Amino acid sequence: MKSIKLLIIVLSSIIVSSCIPHKDTIYLQNKENSTNDTIPNNLIEIQKPYRIQINDILNVRVKALDQETVEILNPIGEENLNASSAERAYFDGFTVDVHGNIRIPTLGYINVLGFTTEEIEKIVEKKLLDEQFKSTASVFVTVKLAGLRFTANGEVGTPGSTVLFTEKVNIFEAIANVGEIPLTGDKKDVLIIRQYPQGQKIHHLDLTDINVMKSPYYYIQPNDIIYVKPLKQKSIGTGETAVATLSTIATIVSLLTTSVLLFTRL
Asked: What is the distance, to the nearest Å, from the Cα of residue 87 to the centroid of all Cα atoms in its chain?
C-alpha cells in the first residue's frame, strides 16, 4: 500500500505541471497591472500599406465615359461561371510574374513590384491617358488584391489555406476563420512566417498581451503562414484541464489499487 500512496503523490504532482494555466488561455490581457477595463494608452492598430510581391494576383478594373472603349481591359470570366469566388479571382486577375510585371491587354507589361495598389492605380491611369485616351474620357482605374490568401498550421481548428475577400485582416480575424486555437495551442507565441524580397522571416506574436495590437505584424499579409505551436502539456497527455487530469489520474490509481488487492489475495 505504501507504493500506492507514493504513486498517488507522484501523480498528484503531475497535475501542477500538466494543467494549462487559465491566464494562458485568455486573449488581450492587460499585463501592466492596470485596474482600468479599457485599452491602455489608447492603443492604435498599426498597418503599413502592403506592397505588391511576386505571385500576387491583382484585380484591375477601368471605367470611362464610353465604357465600350475599355471593355477589353475588364475580363468578365464568362467561361468560369461555375467557379468559386477564389477561382474566378485567379482566372480574371493579373498575376505578378517573377520579374514583378503584370500584362494588361493593349497596355502590355507594367512593373508593379513593390508598389501599393493606390500607386498602381495612378500608373495604369497615366499610361492609359498617355497612350490611348484624352483627359476628357474621364478614365477611372481601381486596383485591388484578388483576395487575401493565408495558411494556418499547427494547433488550430481547421488547418489549411484560406482566402478572404477583404483589404485588411488582423491576426484574430484570421484565426477565427480557421476554427480558433484550442486549449492545447500556445497563444503566447504564435509564429507569422512572412515572405520578403530577400526571403522568409519569422515573427512572434503574444496574443495574450493586449499590446499585440501595437505590433507591425498584427495585420497579416497575403501569403502569410500562421503557425500555432502545441503546449508541452499536450505531449504529456494527462488532460487539458485540472478536471481532465484528475479524471485520468483517478482511473490509473483505481486500476493499480485493484491490481494490488488482487495480487495480495493470491
From this structure: 20
